[in-house]
Specification:
27% helix, 2 domains, 5-stranded mixed barrel, Rossmann fold, single chain, globular, alpha/beta, 6-stranded parallel β-sheet, 360 residues, 10 helices
Amino acid sequence: MKTIKKSIICKSIKDYSINEAIIRDYQPKAGDVAIFEVLELGSLTAIQDEDGRNCHIFEGDRIMVTFGNRYASNQFEGYVPVGYHEEYDLMGKGGVAGIVKSMYYKLELTGPTKLKLIGYATNSKGEVINTIYHGVKTTRFRPGKERKYQTILSIGSSMDSGKTTSAAYLCRGLKAAGNKVAFIKLTGTVFNKDRMLAYDCGADYSTDFSELGFPSTYLCSMDCLMDLYAALLSRVTEMNPDYVVMEIADGLLQRETEMLISDKTFMSTIDHVLFSSGDSLSALQGIITLRDKGIEPFGLSGMINTRPLLVDEVNENLKLPVLNLADLASPAVVESLKGVSAGTTVEQNLASAQFILEVA
């Protein structure tokens, strides 16, 4: 059995020592690498290892993960702790530890997996290793930089509203139409399932924030998010895409999502928006919220498509095409993008959306 099971967020960590002497005095920050002993299993009984494999963990195992913050309405809300704690919580399968503040009600019976801090991973200089931009060159965001591709933003009303699946199937449709397609997940908590789904659906290249060492993007500053965005774009532009499909995690009211869609500089880089929702009321209110910010989606998708009655309600109250997975995966999806862009006026987009509905 391996001595230490390394999580995927720590895959770039090769040479290190374990410093046990500083565990009570050192104040951790997001991205700091540490070794923990599993004390008690809770809702998470596995981690994604450095190869992306589902690696089961057991009481007594030692695992390498990072400290981080997490916002997940259907999972955990948790934070990098202040000071030393006797026990810590495993908050994300990709390798995020901290202290849980709240959790989804279905997790309350089992709770989080409990950990004991053994020591910090340190480099040859005795410094605690941090995964963020570890061995990776940073990139500064430059406003007005020319882009030779179109960027489509996938956002949703909440976590699990269907935005990842919608984005992945959109990649499939764009690829089927003969385009070169890249996928980016800009915000969230480390877990490679989403980018792998997009890749399996046909994206030529798929990446996310964790590839630059971020265990999560929760509580990042706007400047940090924009530089991260630029760094991820610099990676995908190397394959000269026709389209970049990008997902932002969680819902419209979540901190980072709200910051990004409210920022004119960020939105100036977005050509089209796809909105996902789980029900008719959140669909209607979500569109109102987006229009108040001057954003007009080209279509509505997501979990609402699992409820035909709610789709009927949307069709009766909203002049916007509702696209199911078959629609998104079809090469004809490119027709839905014509004349409907995030930056045009609501009146112009409504007219185009109405035309799409009539010819569909």
